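User: Can you predict the 3D structure of Methyltransferase type 11 domain-containing protein? Sequence below.
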Amino acid sequence: MAMISSSVQSTLHKPFISPKHSQLNRIPLLASRLRYSSSTRTTTIRATSAVTVKPVSNVDKSGNSESPEVFACPVCYEPLIRKGPPGINLGAIYRSGFKCKKCEKTYSSKDIYLDLTVTAALRDYTEVKPTGTELFRSPLVSFLYERGWRQNFSQSGFPGPDEEFKMAQEYFQSAEGGLLVDVSCGSGLFTRKFAESGTYSSVVALDFSENMLRQSYEFIKRDGKLLNSNLALVRADVSRLPFASGSVDAVHAGAALHCWPSPTNAIAEITRILRSGGIFVGTTFLRYTSSTPLIVRRLRERALQPYSYLTEEEIEDLCSSCGLTNYSSKVEKSFIMFSAQKP
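Assistant: Sure. Here are the predicted structure tokens for Methyltransferase type 11 domain-containing protein:
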């Protein structure tokens, strides 16, 4: 069975040249190769039963990998087969083609990110998401996100990126050495911090917005170390995550939950992809807290209708209903950071 189309095969055998993204031309392949195995091995664990599984790949003489790996088909959740160099890094993924062995749908990198949405490569159908999602697909909002937009969050109690990252790292201690997925990564503000920390074997930045992913790349390419790190940019829908069940050690969602069309579907998906013992950490704006006056509560409920602003009690209930345990949270004004674990 042909792995990918003849045109893509022809492209993969040519030297990798990216005139548009010349930075990628200098990215060396990872010395370490992804390995896939049907068996699991236990890594060092801190107060959790988390298990880390690394794919084992079959690499031919030309350096191409033709084996299942960390990414899965968003249609049937089967691990994808890659034709191209192994590794979770920008250069390797850019030069690779991916195919689902079950439904035979193919996926490839577009610009500098891998498109793993169900609508990838469709020509006639365009799916329009709710306002809260479409807003962040705007080039202007993507450009402004780290140039003033995100800074305004401090008025609602957000402690700032450095402190938020520190807080998240405390929750993620048991996931050290594993795979971290930064869902709804935006311009990659926290993705870069997770990758720079060296705490995780790989970091996948995931967002539905094409322009946010392009903006994320613009920030990444400023740092040569990040260009060569185990970091990937992936376009995906949070309600249809492109990972096999039980394959991810940690999931982060910064200031994202209120923008999701269905927080229930999103957290259910996050629970599905987490390994046993895996950690989910998120931040968002609360609709109101227990100390908010009744009249203010009613005004906020009307004003915030386009978004899914929840209360702390609703977030905990939602995590519990999706099968997550050990819920904990920290609240400051309208800011909340919460954490939950897959049993």
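Confidence is low (pLDDT under 50) at residues 1-57. Residues 123 and 301 are 39 Å apart (CA to CA).
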